[in-house]
Amino acid sequence: MKKIIFVVAILYSITLFSQDKRIPLDTIVTTSSSVTIKGKKISYKAQTGTQPVYDANGVAKATLFYTYYYRTDVSNSEKRPLLMSFNGGPGSASVWMHIAYTGPKILKIDDEGNPIQPYGIKDNPYSILDEADIVFVNPVNTAYSRPIVAAEEKVDAKYFFGINADAKYLADWLNLFVTRTNRWNSPKYIIGESYGGTRVMQLAHELQNNQWMYLNGVIMVSPADYQLLRTQSSEDYAINFPYFTAAAWYHKMLPPELQQKDLLEILPEAENFAVNTLLPALAKGGFINDAEKNKVAEKMAYYSGIKKEVILQHNLEVPNSYFWKELLRDTSGKTIGRLDSRYLGIDRRESGTKPDYSPELVSWLHSFTPAINYYIQNVLNFKTDVKYNMFGTVQPWDFSKNNARENLRKAMAQNPYLKVLVQSGYYDGATTYAAAKYTMGKIDPSGKLKNRLFFKGYRSGHMMYLRKEDLQKANDDLRDFIKNSAENIGAAKY
Description:
This protein is an alpha/beta fold. It has helices spanning 95-98, 157-160, 163-180, 195-210, 234-250, 256-259, 263-283, 290-304, 308-313, 320-326, 359-379, 404-414, 433-443, 468-485, and strands at residues 4-7, 27-37, 40-54, 60-71, 82-86, 105-107, 121-123, 133-137, 146-147, 188-193, 217-221, 335-336, 344-345, 419-425, 453-458. The strands form 3 sheets. Strands 1, 2, 3, 4, 5, 8, 9, 10, 11, 14 and 15 form an 11-stranded mixed β-sheet that branches.
């Protein structure tokens, strides 16, 4: 039987200052439980609640909802690794990795990640809680996290909603959290999914340079790099192209000589073509000669499963969104998913340049929304009438002064302990695996840090952990990364 301990500490009345009076500023609910991981029973506590964000004058600007899992059956918990987890959006709650990837509970879904009824959760036999304690953090306006403003004032958007502002206030929050939980001696890691990839690149620098909190690892899951993503540059079109090959292979749309090979045999071919042939061709723009243009288009059709004619109509610059609509247009007439191209959708019309909706996202919301609302209220015992925001209002988001890549490089250069792991699904058409590899190379143009940058790929999409086989593999990769990067390597020097 679970022991439930309620510890509620309200720092001061929020009657006049909270945007939503139903959320306490500073409160904790603690539950005790256990889970069997890799055949071994693990006892843990879950600390769920809200913790304030304070400005430089000690004034509360917001309260963030979080869930913190820590083992209780170990003798020296202070030195256990601590994983600080974020999702992306921007504007997304931490729900995705919380109840589908690293936490002790996961969704009830089928082995490929599709929703099944009745909805719910079950134990996660692959959780990394055996190796590291985990805190799932929800930025402002996601989950139950809310800004604090006087009744007549507006939310200070510049304080929260931008690449640099986001990292700054979250670093302040993490400093307080680590102090309150006595985790300063622990090896520390930050993990971010999608936009969370940009977030943790920036956050690593912010933590080290303004909080003096040095990390052992940064983990990027299906990272969104906005110095490449949606730029519609030659690099953007070319670097994403190997994803076309992966998705076409999955749907059996490639020529027989490619289709009969394994996915990992053909992707290096597609990557080589993208970098050494397609990218130079795109760089020539309208000055490419007809013979070369036709030759490149023919090879693009070979590696993508779409017609040479439509490739030429796009001047070799085929957007991912068009590919999702085009790949199966002449066969089943279905669209393929943006975040996970294994999923299929049905549009009103087969004609058009992009799908009507993202079939994978609606599928995921189908599973996640009832599960997280049930879990928090009934298992973690955090009671509130406030709506849980799967996605919250954070727009317009300030993408200016984006130096996230360079700031991660500085953090790595400053800290010889710091290593980076990137995890990507081959069928992710939003933040492609090849773009993630590209980002790794751009983080460190000198190549002097590349022995601390690691990549892992999976036969699934954006949330690779929804597929049972990859849930196990991806968690094992995290576990190995944490073990290796938490080892004592001696003095932190070059």
